[in-house]
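User: hey, got a sec? need Hydroxymethylpyrimidine/phosphomethylpyrimidine kinase folded
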Amino acid sequence: MSNVKIALTIAGTDPTGGAGIQADLKTFQEREVYGMSVLTSAVAQNTLGVLDIHHLPLDFINQQLESVFSDIKPNAIKTGMIATIEMMELISHYLREYPEIPYCLDPVMVATSGDVLMEEISQTIIKEQLVPLATVATPNLSEAEILVGRSIRTIEEMERAAIEIVAELGAKTVVVKGGHLDGEAIDVFYDGNQLYHLSSERFHTVHTHGTGCTFSAVITAELAKGKSIFEAVEQGKAYITDAIKYSLELGKGNGPTNHWGYRLQGLPNERGEK
Ligand SMILES: Nc1ncnc2c1ncn2[C@@H]1O[C@H](COP(=O)(O)OP(=O)(O)O)[C@@H](O)[C@H]1O
Ligand SMILES: Cc1ncc(COP(=O)(O)OP(=O)(O)O)c(N)n1
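Assistant: Yep! Here you go:
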């Protein structure tokens, strides 16, 4: 029996490879876990934005899930773009069947480009169906705002939202990501008992497409290896920091991060920063 650890992502696509399933699989590979993927929506997008979205038929998503679970059981699961209520219901059914598998919920709602990746009506359902199943949820500021129903502009407000997402919405733990605030890049982690700040310098770059996907994919990979949630989140922060620092300057808009950036630690980046 193989000892290899296995991570599954259930998400949409990015043909330019910076976000979605493509980013998740690259990250799984870099973290040395075997990556599997179930596709929810095919998205025509690039570094400038989203052109079009095609949702896969529900039956076909179900067949993909059946293909995976009837053959190769993952050690951890991540969900990204789940656009419709029907998809959420289907996926939550599988998650409930395997409560022993750690689950990282990246509640993807809107891309950095401003394009909507989830039907508005599904925003309520994600709260009810998916958040309570999450081992760790990783909302960015605007997603956390939708989850708690008020604006979040300060670290204290991030902390209050983190506590509420665990205590009232039922996630086991949460990271409220501060990528869209100013100053240091501070994420707030709440484990149900204690609040932690994960901070890094802020890089002044437009190349942050897919940061959230990549961050949550690292967390999933580390959970698949049996790491604690805190260790997984710390690793996610270290990895995404290097991925942004050594971003590849690709595309005409908000380019992707560098999924092998952590291997370049200590070297100067494209902007001459060490
Ligand atoms: N310019 C930046 N410099 C350093 N870290 C960043 C920057 N932008 C985002 N991050 C980090 O990347 C991760 C993803 O955050 P965020 O961009 O808020 O998520 P999303 O991509 O879901 O909007 C977080 O750990 C955040 O702190
Ligand atoms: C298919 C797909 N899933 C998720 C996203 C959003 O990715 P995220 O990591 O939040 O980064 P931005 O795109 O918002 O920079 C996506 N774009 N596509």
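Quick note: The pocket of adenosine-5'-diphosphate (ligand 1) is lined by residues 112, 140, 177-180, 185, 187, 200, 202-203, 208, 211-212, 215, 237, 240-241, 244 (CB under 6 Å). Let me know if you need anything else on Hydroxymethylpyrimidine/phosphomethylpyrimidine kinase.
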